[in-house]
Design a protein that fits this description.
This protein has three helices and no strands. It is mainly α and about 70 residues long. The chain has one domain (about 1-65). Helix 1 (about 1-25) packs across helix 3. It is elongated. The protein starts with a helix and ends with a helix.
Length: about 70
Amino acid sequence: MKALDTIALILVIVGALNWGLWGVFQFDLVAALLGGNTAPLSRIVYAVVGLAGIYSLAFLVKRSTPSS
C-alpha cells in the first residue's frame, strides 16, 4: 500500500499546483500539456487526480481516529 499512498500524494500535489496556477494566473497546466480541458487525456488526468483526492481522505480519517 505504500506505493499507492505515494502515487496518490503525488497526484494530489499535481492537482493542488494546477489549482494554484489557475487561481493566480488563470493557467491550466494540465490542459496546456494535454490538449485542452475537454481533451480525453486531460479528462482522464482530472478524474485520476480526483480519485487520488478521495483516496487521500483516508489519511485524514486515520489521523483523526484515536489509537488504542
